[in-house]
Sequence to fold (368 residues):
Amino acid sequence: MAADEPLVLGIETSCDETGVGIVRGTTLLADAVASSVDTHARYGGVVPEIASRAHLEAMVPTIERALKEAGISARDLDGIAVTSGPGLAGALLVGVSAAKAYAYALNKPLYGVNHLASHICVDQLEHGPLPEPTMALLVSGGHSSLLLAPDITSDVRPLGATIDDAAGEAFDKIARVLNLGFPGGPVIDRLAKEGDPKAIAFPRGLTGPRDAPYDFSFSGLKTSVARWIEAKRAAGEEVPVRDVAASFQEAVVDVLTRKAVRACKDEGVDHLMIGGGVAANSRLRALAQERCERAGIRLRVPRPGLCTDNGAMVAALGAEMVARNRRPSDLELSADSSLPVTEPHVPGRHPEHSHDHVHEISKDNLYS
Fold:
């Protein structure tokens, strides 16, 4: 870690977790998270209004905790990064408003960054600089995407995405049918380890010869599993929860890894990065490692704590923006709940507000 590498604070509030991370270059200094998941669990899913209120209450304490953990003052920062989209509009607005307030008060450059691109960039904190191009499989409650990123700060290309339910959403819905609570991913992963993944032949969506090679569909799988469970209950039979969990999980990770490896081969990329909350799934990690080794592909997966939503991933992308001299965002930055992945960050509309200009102003004020 060099002292001249950019020191950036990142704020993530796209869903139900208030994440604040601080990085210097590609070194993680602090990763503070305040989660409202227990509150949402009572409703079986995330309630946007509750998430927004939780972000408001947690924002300042979480930022202060991250600064203390990193052992720095806010005035030491070289920039503020924040998730400006995609995500829940109200939740995003809380984070964006906070980031703008801190950037203005501290006279630091502001970077509104893309949530999905941040999930890719976080791997730099564990495995070093990303190869260029990077092939990334992102799997979470809201997204299942295959992305090719020649430059994570300016050039991210979607190869395929879910056409209906995302993988994480399917996990939550099947967990609800099985009365396992929310969120569904961790409990299904745990139960699946005690079940037989070959017990039930659930369908693999969009894997036919005429189907889109890189797109995903889990709606049909979800329906198939739900009907299988309903049929068992209607017949008065006990539902083998562990076998259902294992068979369902296997159907999901089989499709995800199969398509990801195919994309690497087709694009001539010798590595695969997996990110997003579902990347914490133990079976996905194991099957991806097995198939990548067989295909001669190097697998990069961050540790589980960096796969779920966090501020460290936002700070990592922000630091990369500073290092590559990308133009910062204006203070007019707003939240964009449908920000496309092709826009890794939201540059300012005023070219004269270049990174060097704003950065030097902040340094002059800080050290004069």
